[in-house]
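Entry:
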Amino acid sequence: MNTSLLKRFKGVIDVTKPPYNADNSGKTDCTQVLKQIVDDILAENIKGMKETTDKLLAMPDPNARISFEICKNDGIPDVIFPEKLPLGKIIYFPNGTYLVSDTISYSHENLCNIFLGLPGYELSRQIYFKGESRDGVTIRLKDNCRGFGFGANKPVVSFMRAELSNVAMTNTFEDITIDVGSGNSGAVGLVFFANNTGSIKNVRIVSSDSEYRGYAGLEINHEIISGCYVKNLEVIGFQYGVRVIPARHYVTLEHIALKHQKKAGIFVNNTMVMVRDIKSENSVPAMKIDGNMAHVIVADGELTGGNPLDSGIVYSLGSCYIRNVRSDGYKSAVAFREFPRADGNRAIEFSNEDTYTLFDENAQTLNLTAEDIPDIPWNNDETEWAFSDEYGAIGDGIHDDTVAVQKLMNSGKKYIFFQPGEYLLNGTINIPPSVERVNFMYCSLAAGEKLRSELKSAFRVVGESDVPLIVEDVFSWERFYGHFRFIEHASKRTLILSDLHIQTAALYFNSEQGGKVFIENCACTVGGDMYRAVCPFEFVGQTVYARNMNPERADCEIINDHGTLWFMGFKAEGYGTTVKTVNGGVTEILGGVASMGENKDLPVVVNENSDVSAILSTNGYWPEHIFPYAVKEVRGGETRFIGYGELPKRLLNCFRLPLYSGRGRVKD
């Protein structure tokens, strides 16, 4: 993101420019200015909540309804969020050093919604921190700062001040270094929180103390049904590099570098945590797992610098699956408390709990090769940019923008940007091969009647190109609903879907087979019972690599029909099947949470004459939140099940599936 783009985009707040004028020389304290920016952004949620509540209360019907989740029940209001989303605004930090002396967060005490007529969940969402570059932007805590002493465990930047939320969506923290300075033993670099979609990307958290003092680099310690994707994180120093606590959270970590921790590189209590590609240079364990409900997957790691009296990964409680992890210097790669395993310095494939198969194979993961998402930088050629307002799109949620958005796509420009707003669409928009990037810049979308009832998709990828297409940064709310999907993949062109939140519509299907798809940090929730038959993610004959998917409330959340699907990290919600693989498909699931089963006769995983390996957990809030079956496998004419009573218990009637594998694909 460069200066020219900032000038043309209306949704970026440059913290160094008026009215805030934050100093980036590292000489003047920026604390109050940065806190004010966050407060000003979240004030729009408070304003919207009041306007929506007043509107609902003025409606005479005791069961009046504004949208799916804004209604009255016998006169008692539920206002889960504002009827109209606040405009997305990116808090942008140009290169420089920003000196702070207190936690950068919001200070609103009334930042909550209304549930059953009472104050409910915290509305700490749509908080987008973006730096010009990780190595160029530093938020630095003053040395020996008051309030950050030993035992304080106080964050430098925090996304959550209350106890819990289930509507804190799309928070992001990208391309920034946090330095907790010197002499701040109780400092936490970043406390992060997000629901369904949220990401930390390209971030360094360091202690510049000569003894690397500080409590934790990254801490995730709030509830509920929450999840986030962390990619390209480096933590230097602290007692703990990453600390993840809550039971009903899940975290997907990828490309993590840890160094100079004093107690552990990563500490996991009762959470579901998936880690891929961890590099730890520590004498202490790279990871400690210590919670009855913990469920941890580690795939691909190099753990160096170890103490010969300790182990690279130490577990006391919970479940862990470790694959392709090498250690150097430790007495073993994996240990139960202080007792080494026989794996020596390499864990090729290890599970501390029983593994499961239904047709007598060896229970092992498919061990698919996981391709990284292509890293395609932003282009700085202004002649290749096109903005929505330049082609007549209004973005007020009232005027039909279909024709204008199609003109935008047909502009011949490679890079398409949307200004803040809500874009009403009533037709399918074709994305031609000339387009290489569509960045919605966290705008919202609304569906017209024709799109809701007649059409298959809001956007369609058409035509072939050797250049991948990136579609990114959407936060669409409850006016975007219907039987359609957000995007139709109608070509073999490689497609990257990143940071997409579609609250009440399904997200993806393909009408042309043979393509490749990358997905990171994408969520969708089908909008009500009448749409449950629409599958949120349907892949037919595709090759798919996904991280942190969040499909919800459909009869089947993810379908792989004779394709190859590798994914790490998911949260599904509702009574439906999470993943169904059919017709010789190949699916590997490395961790995730299926939430809130309703005791329906629908298994979490279905394998019909295909190859599937799966590691996952379930989650619930009441005893009746049950998935009766973890797995249903159909092979030839025979059907077998793994029932929840056969598996290790997690909490209530929830379970862990340490590892299931079934290889029923008919080989050519």
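The first strand starts at residue 12 and ends at 14.
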